[in-house]
Write a structure and sequence with these properties.
about 475 residues, alpha/beta, FAD/NAD(P)-binding domain, D-Amino Acid Oxidase, Chain A, domain 2, 3 domains, five-stranded parallel beta sheet, FAD binding, monooxygenase, FAD-dep_Monooxygenase_BioMet, oxidoreductase
Amino acid sequence: MGLVKPARQIASLSVDFLVIGAGIAGLACAIALRRVGHRVVVLEKHDSITKATGGCRMPPNLSKILFHWGLEKELRKISLKSQGIALNLFETGELLGEHIWDEELLRESRGEFVFAHHADLRQLLYDTALSCGATIHLNTTVAAVEPEACRVRLSTGEVLEADVIVGADGPSGLSRQLFDQGESVHRMNMYSATIPKELIVQDEDLSFVYDGILRSMFAWFGDGRSVLGFPAGGKADFALFIYCPKDGNEGSWEEIAPLSAMQEVLETAEPRLKKLGKLAQSPTCIAFKEVPDLDDWVHESGPLVLVGEAANPLPPGSIQEAALAIEDGAVLGKLFSHLHSRSQIRSLLYAFHEIRHDRCSRVTKKEIGDIQFMCLPPGDYQQMRDDVMRAKRDAGKDVLDSDADTGEEEEKGKGVGSAEWAEIVDVFGYDAEDDADNWWVMWGLLRERAREDVDIAPCNVMTEQVVEFEQALAVVDSEA
């Protein structure tokens, strides 16, 4: 198994998976499925997996999965542990307050909050997938996906078949286009850039970025724009995510955007932010779109399942962007560790959708809300947000603590102070593999026993009763 630990349960029937896309989601699926004994081929259109730039925030619900897979040592080599966050105003630089992550709560989550370069995380997953025995074809373009035949046609004309196709090719990929989807709404743009550490430390005004160990992430709240900054991994280059009104420069993670356009967004920013913008290198500009939920992630015509942002696009730069993708892989692997018959495939794919859809939808709405919260225009709510944080700052409290913890009136800070705790409990504390195990115990085993009862039905049982029972099972499968 190379870098990764084998799973405790291996599928008694190994089948073939074709994964379209070698991004975070596709590689996580490859690792998880190989860990439980399935054969995996990954198809990636680019000739390299390290082209995407920028930083990556990895919350505990992500890191705990990699720790469980045996990748803790490798992850620590490329990452930097986050200790807290400092919240500032975009235009003036006023410090609204700081928050130090609660170590006890993080320990209970069984993960850590770490930062890395996106390319380093992807390289780690790529190397791990290969060491697990997955086959990865780079520079391979999928021209057509045929769910009913469970095959894909490459741009070369070659046809590849499998038992399951996993669509991990993103929100604009071929896989998602095969599903009914509504119109997306282009809300904002997000510029992503990194700054070499050696450039920052030469400027005394920017020394705050690396002062101490507790201020490891920074946020600036502005009028219709906001900035997140953090040291990105082992090399500790400083990563910037800049949210701003749409300006016509949006492209992809692999396309370099005009540096001048990014710097223009920072024209109204405090002096330190302007300086960081002038030191930034090779920015990319991604559209932040709100995308309607898909009704289903499993194609009606055949065993094609969507994962990652092909299933559930998040705002670019979201804290849960990589996390939900890796959770998808973990859940898919766990479910297919129970495979012993091809007749189970479709019901396990529906189970994947059942487990993941609500979780991803809920987290995505929160991510969108967080960005909107940081970009509030001047007004009563913006003033309330800032005043509540200032009050906590002046009282010596962590700024994201719930209002009950600081003695503030509940109504005064409603919607402002409790978000961090809700995230710790509901988002950071979530364990994707436990969720898959719980589904299997509650529903999967029950379904298997029901199938066994049908299989051993005595000859004197009326045919009509057997048919009715099988139809009932089919209904359960379709609802899963």
